[in-house]
Amino acid sequence: MMKLALDESLLLKVDKPAKYTGNEWNMVRKNPDEVAIRFAFAFPDDYEIGMSHLGMKILYHTMNKRQDTYCERVFAPWTDMEQLMREKKIPLYALETYTPLSEFDLVGFTLQYEMSYTNILNMLDLGGIPVLAKDRTEGMPFVLAGGPCAVNPEPLADFIDFFVIGEGEEVIHELLDAYKAWKASGESRDAFLLKASGVSGVYVPSLYDVFYYEDGTIMDIIPKNAQVPDVIKRRIVTQLDEVDFPEDIIVPYIGTVHDRIMLELFRGCIRGCRFCQAGFIYRPVRERSPEKLLELAKNSVKKTGYEEISLVSLSTSDYTGLPDLCNNLMTFTEEEKVNLSLPSLRVDNFSLGLMEKASKVRKSGLTFAPEAGTQRLRDVINKGVTDEDLKSSVQLAVAGGWTSIKLYFMIGLPTETMEDVEGIGDMGINLIESCRGLENKEGKSLRLTLSTSCFVPKPFTPFQWEPMDTIETLMEKQYHLKDRIRKRTRRIDYNYHDAKTSFIEAVLARGDRRLGAVILAAWKAGAKFDGWDEHFSFATWQQAFTDCGLDPAFYANRRREYSEVLPWDHIDMGVNKKFLVTESLKAREGDLTRNCASGCSNCGAQVYKAGICVRKKNIDEKDR
Amino acid sequence: MPKALRFRFSRGPELKYIAHLDMLRLFERAIKRAGLPVAYTQGFNPRQKLVFGLPIAVGLTSSSEYADIEFDQDISTDDYIQGLNAHLPEGVRVMEATAFSGKDNIMNQVASAKYELSFTTEDELSHFALENMVRDFLAKEEIMVMKKSKKGLKPVNIRPLIYSLTVRKAEKKSCILDAFLSAGAENNLRPDLLMEAFQKETGMTIRVDAMHRTALFASLMNEWKNPLEVANG
Questions:
Q1: Cα(A387)–Cα(A367) distance, rounded to whole angstroms?
Q2: Cβ-defined contact of A306 to B15 (cutoff 8 Å)
Q3: What pLDDT score does A624 carry?
Q4: CATH for A8-233?
Q5: Per-residue pLDDT tens for A137-194?
Q6: pTM for this structure?
Q7: What whole-number distance in Å separates Cα of residue B132 and Cα of residue B166?
Q8: Is A301 on the interface with B (CB under 8 A)?
Q9: Which structural domains are found in chain B, ordered by start?
Q10: Which of A25, A249, A334, A402 has the most B C-beta neighbours within 10 Å, making it the best mutation to test the interface with B?
Q11: Which of A34, A587, A619, B102 lies at a C-alpha separation of 20 to 30 Å from B19?
């Protein structure tokens, strides 16, 4: 085994050198010579982002509980460090043992954001692993990937040996067992890939052929041999209370984005907002019990010394036992001097009292996400929030002493007109008006921030067939809104996301495997950290598309037919296409769909026989 | 048994890449893990009553860092040292502790510091030659460097802040200087700044290999005192 000796003069030249030295509290220490499998969990972004990721903490803990496996961590070095590493020929290494990436058995990337794809290539290259899967030979690591973006794995098909679709806690054990058996057998690399394809939830892209029509759309996606499944079924954990959740999480030395204990209340979301990929790909809702959560919270504080706990889930206020849980948690956190933070509460069941009690910290920012500026458009996206809901929430908050409120919207939603865009600004102005006289005595008046992101249609949502607005249209809408707000008030800050970044994100999100050539070309031309404004170069990507003879608008701005074969049609997420088509048609009519707690809409996730699907059924049967 | 302690701790090379505030947080979390009955400040955002003597910059190791801590109940120095050390990561260790009166905190008391500065020169240098350079350097009335302040860079004369500078070793290209410098909230001289000035004034090209803080002193009646000795003052 090779252990790198890190050069001091190198580390003192880079920003935040502690990102590259490991040794944090609760880091797992094992003797690499005493394990059968060495796994590098790779996060294709900066340490400060990656160390905030709950999924990594879960899988690190899960894998390291196995005696036969040592899971270590790898992050994308920031550009200052990368430059020095390349100059001094230091390969990318894992933080636990400073072992180069190329010496691992398995290198697993988590795909949280399309704009981190070029970082994957860069990390492989820095780690001494060929970026193209076809160039990897016997004895080299297998490169796998999972996470939300893996629901459409196709754009990365050239680089990744196999994908894991869905939640990893259970399938990872099956994979590691299969790997160990294969390693002992001495069989070929191809033999392992074939074996892996037999593990439910695992997708080996090289074992499939994709055929195209002349117009560039897909004719069919077909397995190369009969042993390989036609459809890859997403894996989920059915009982959250029974699956391991880490209490002894690594405590970084330097501040990270989410530097606190994250308590995952539940997975999935009952809401079904039609733009939201997370709302569909994590179904059905499965909750942890309040007793389990309280136990996890107490043990985590003891084992980490963290001063803050945040409740994380897609829509925290939908947790069925929230008041009880919060009361019990707060008794404990007050005693222990721990902060409890409650993110992303929904406007419609927003509980100010809860916020008041929970956040002992300054009453600084509150955030709401109405997503669209008019009722019509909110109905289109199935966001069941009214102007009245929002007004009363904001009034309550302002009267309660909050003076800075942020509202999140999207621009470019399907069916959007300029009137809807103007509605965003009007909503802000009306809110400011309606809060006059309610502001606190200290004379601090309400400061409103409106933020708009660009709507990006995502796979497995009812909007997966929708064309994205062109960059020009998005920018026109942004400028129009900016202008309109500025003319009418100074008390609103308006900011918006870069449309060009969102455009590339949209191409990659719904792309097919031909995009591999574009990603490779962009990376070769220097693209990395594309999600960071200071590094993103639109021109580099444009050139890559031109060089590869592909039109990005084909992927981003084209309306797809319901009958078209989509690049991800061989992936089965539980939620079925029939349901998504129905939702897409209802969206055009502005028809709302009830949420899972109110009643089942037959989305397809019932096949998992888990969580709310089962719970609701039991209640319904009892009623009968 | 005391309700407040002053303690000395060390920081090894394992943790030299961490900035001052990260170091403080590292202690706060270790104290929490250890379950020590630390006292908290009042208010919306309670903080542990823990004060460090002097910020410890990135790249610096030390055998003599001092801090004050207050508790809600009495605690013995042994319980404190053992309890906390069990929860501190490799690289930081509490070495000794003593009762603290709670009057004048360590941050206000620290007035000077000793450093061991190791560096490599481009050309070979004799002990005698380096001593001459140091003597010439100290003979200057003014040594101006640009110091970072809240308002940006401003020129500062650091000569009065250097109490002594002596050669410990000069063998081939590898040298060690012992420096005794003004420290504390008001007139702090960071050793990296001293080395920068030394490089500039002597015209040598050097590579700093290690900077190690060996002692911190409080000033009492014109005398340098070990901070633990004046914890009850």
A1: 16
A2: no
A3: 47
A4: 3.40.50.280
A5: 999 999 999 999 999 999 999 999 999 999 999 999 999 999 999 999 999 999 999 9
A6: 0.94
A7: 10
A8: yes
A9: 4-102 (3.30.70.580), 111-217 (3.30.70.3190)
A10: A25
A11: B102
